[in-house]
Amino acid sequence: MVESLAGMNDLQITLMAIGALIIVAVIFINWWQEKKFHQQAQAKFSTAHADVLLEGSGHNEPKLDFSKRYDEKVDPTMDRFEETALTIDVIEPTFEAASAEPLDLKFEDTVHLTQTPQVEDDASTFAEQSHEVIESPAEAKPVQHDDIKAIFDEVFSNPGKTIASYQQSRVGQYDSEEEAVEEISAADTSFKLPTMLDANIDVTAILHLNAPTPVSAIGQTFSVLQTGYDKPVFINVLGPNQHWTLLNDATLDLPVTAVACSLQLADRAGALSAQDYQRFESAIASVNTPLNASLEWHGAEDVLGNAAALDAFCIEVDQSIGFHLGQAENGAFTGTKLRGLAEAQGLTLSADGSFKYFGAAQEPSDYAQPAFIMTNREDHPFNIDMLRSSVVKGVSFQLEIPRVKQCGEEFSHMVQVARRMELGLNAAMVDDNNKLLGDAQIEKIRQHLKVIDAAMRNRGIEPGSDSALRLFS
After folding, report:
1. Do both 137 and 83 map to the same domain?
2. Looking at the domain assignment, is residue 361 inside a domain?
3. Global confidence as pTM
4. At what angle do helices 303-317 and 439-458 cross, to 10 degrees?
5. 8 A C-beta contact, residue 459 and residue 313
6. 216 and 181: one domain?
7. Are 363 and 442 in the same domain?
8. Is 268 within the bounds of a domain?
């Protein structure tokens, strides 16, 4: 030990000495504070006071006993009121059975629970002493870990109370409670555009009306925006339930709080023109003049540039993939056999002269979006009479990538249907140059489809979505 100390320099010895002094000082301070606290507690609680509410149990009702201060005989000259006050019994409160409904205890109620009713004259001294005994534990007391844990348990077991307390504390930061409630409510909710609109393909003007207005009063005003444009225009109105509805589908008595006017940026006919966009801006301004609504634009930054870029992107990905079934050594095949095989594979003959295949989630109709179609390769539409009396030299299978959901899966199903019909018709699967298609060629087509699908999703336009169907129409 001596050798160890000899090897230490003066700085280390000094630091050790300082550390020892600090430890001794902390121990002494803690002992002194504990002793002081016990002395204060002993001084305050040295005299025990009876508690009117806690004395006795069952049928034994506590009474104020003044036998030590007064004789058994009451002085006849004593005031009647004083006599009554001295001999009156203190009735213990009774409680009815708890109801099934939960108690709604608020923070304000706890203040009254600590207050003791005061009795006039001599009994007032007793009430003051009882009140002091109840409130004295609220004196400064070292915070223990159990107390901290209880606080956290209360917060996490009753989050609703915590939130309400937070909102109540926020009220003090504003001039009025209404202003605070409005600000807090605005922070919890966000304004949403109609689901049918897409910031990638639409420019939208939102008019927030100053007061709810029925559709009958504004319907004709906004309907003029729906005509005279090369690109689709949509007018949506916001009802009291915060639900958007197309203006043409809304009831006349629906109270409207906001109107969304949108203009599509591009479609298969090209990009939005500068002339149409200027007309749209002017129309919005003229409509808003009598309404004096709060106007808010969405997607209005470089609208014409965005429209041109979107049109160029659509041209790049607007592709169809397909192949053909042509006559093989056995020659052409009859229309009756073709129709039978097609319907057996789930294809439906539509009014436009093509066989269409719809996914399981769609009902066949002339307006529904098919997964893929089969047409006559000779450009003659199919019909029942033609199929009964004619032969067919070849058919074409086609899938429009931008307009089909899960286009990879649908392409695989189209290949499967074509292979089955190839066997049933004794036909051959060929490309546009009449070259036979094997598995390797089919796989190349599938990889090309995946590239286009990924490009559209990266752009924020999902193939087969409502936005894609509007763009590629």
Report:
1. yes
2. yes
3. 0.57
4. 170
5. yes
6. no
7. yes
8. yes
Q: Is residue 37 in a domain?
A: no
Are 374 and 396 found together in one domain?
Answer: yes
Partners of 436 in the beta sheet?
430
pLDDT tens for the chain, 473 residues: list them.
444 555 568 888 899 889 999 999 989 998 888 888 778 777 765 555 555 555 544 444 445 444 444 444 445 444 444 444 444 444 444 444 444 444 443 434 433 333 444 434 444 443 444 444 344 444 444 444 455 455 445 544 444 443 344 344 444 444 555 554 444 344 333 468 899 999 899 999 999 999 999 999 998 889 888 888 999 999 999 998 899 999 999 999 999 999 999 999 999 999 999 999 999 999 999 999 999 999 999 987 899 999 999 999 999 999 999 999 998 877 888 999 999 999 999 999 999 999 999 976 555 555 578 999 999 998 889 999 999 999 999 999 999 999 999 999 999 999 999 999 999 999 999 999 999 999 999 999 999 999 999 999 999 999 999 999 999 98
Token representation of residue 88:
């009156």
First-last CA distance in the chain: 94
Looking at the fold, whether 267 and 231 belong to one and the same domain comes out as yes
Give residue for tokens 């004196």: 139
Q: Which residue blocks in 328-406 are alpha helix, DSSP H?
A: 335-344, 384-389
Q: What CATH number should be reported for the domain holding residue 233?
A: 3.30.70
Range of the structural domain that residue 17 is part of: 1-30
